[in-house]
Recover the amino acids of this structure.
């Protein structure tokens, strides 16, 4: 089973699925079990050497009396393959015990030692270096905090809109959700997205956009607050469930706050007067439609021209600082430098 380290950035696996379960022991617990196994095996070897001490000869003792200290010493140097040759087995039974019992114990202890050293030292250092290497290359990327139903839909829409999956980082505390994110080709980060350390590991400081899907309004507010403190320039959007919390989340730093309950009510009301209206709205906001509503900066050749003559599609709104200008308003007769244009454009195919 591949070990997982909290906060590890990972890329999608290329192998097939595997049935897995959470680890039953912590790393320290696993280490304690391994030490216990080694001590038990050493105890077996020590018992054999002590109870059959007449079968061993000490070259440094004229009386050839093997003490308990001698048995401990011989067990240690035998299992560790040091073998100074001062104590040796001389009877067939002692030699068979060393060959058939102590030798397998020696091999097992060494394999256990090497496996432990690899897992706790080599592999951990490698994963830590790999994590930093991947993190260092992240820039102008998208962070999705929470990979529930809403977060999953957000990632799918980003990919459908042509965003490179390797520019998307999903943060979730659930290992299974992180694995699900990796399966669609994006990068995953297992951890608490409300913590500064976790968001910094996802390089929120260089992110282009942050999407908060906390599941709870207070969690979304904390996600937004943390992200805004670490990156004052990122575009931050959040989903909430209660309209009472919309202003709170905006004050926390969100540029856009979406309430699916209120939005759903608006759509239901529009559907009551005509089913085609809702279909067209869905067309505008999803990559699967025939047209799409986009937001873009004004081009140099458009400055001074009326909004109606701009773009390849249908320009419908100007954002000028904090002012919103509709296509029917007199101010839409001349586009200024720094304006943001909302435009409906056809999708290829």
């Amino acid at each position: 089973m591949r070990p997982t380290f909290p906060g590890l950035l990972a890329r999608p696996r290329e192998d097939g699925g595997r049935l897995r379960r959470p680890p039953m022991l912590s790393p320290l617990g696993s280490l304690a079990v391994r030490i216990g196994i080694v001590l038990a095996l050493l105890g077996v070897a020590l018992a054999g050497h002590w109870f059959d001490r007449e079968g061993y000869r000490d070259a440094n003792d004229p009386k050839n009396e093997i003490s308990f200290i001698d048995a401990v010493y011989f067990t240690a140097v035998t299992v560790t393959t040091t073998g100074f040759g001062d104590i040796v087995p001389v009877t067939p039974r002692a030699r068979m015990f060393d060959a058939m019992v102590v030798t397998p114990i020696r091999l097992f202890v060494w394999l256990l030692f090497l496996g432990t050293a690899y897992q706790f030292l080599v592999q951990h250092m490698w994963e830590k270096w790999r994590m930093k290497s991947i993190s260092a290359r992240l820039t102008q990327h998208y962070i999705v905090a929470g990979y529930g139903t809403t977060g999953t839909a957000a990632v799918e829409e980003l990919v459908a809109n042509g965003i490179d999956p390797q520019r998307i980082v999903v943060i979730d505390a659930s290992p299974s959700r992180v694995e699900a994110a990796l399966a669609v080709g994006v990068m995953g980060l297992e951890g608490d997205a409300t913590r500064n350390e976790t968001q910094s590991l996802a390089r929120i400081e260089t992110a282009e956009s942050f999407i908060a899907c906390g599941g709870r309004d207070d969690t979304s507010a904390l996600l937004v607050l943390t992200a805004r403190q670490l990156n004052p320039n990122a575009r931050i959007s959040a989903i909430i469930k209660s309209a009472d919390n919309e202003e709170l989340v905006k004050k926390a730093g969100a540029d856009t706050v979406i309430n699916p309950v209120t939005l759903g009510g608006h759509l239901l009301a529009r559907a009551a007067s005509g089913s085609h209206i809702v279909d067209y709205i869905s067309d505008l906001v999803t990559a699967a439609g025939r047209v799409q509503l986009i937001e873009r900066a004004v081009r140099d050749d458009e400055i001074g021209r009326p909004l109606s003559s701009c773009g390849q599609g249908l320009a419908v709104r100007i954002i000028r600082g904090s002012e919103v200008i509709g296509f029917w308003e007199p101010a839409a007769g001349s586009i200024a430098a720094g304006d943001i244009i909302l435009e409906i454009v056809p999708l290829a195919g």
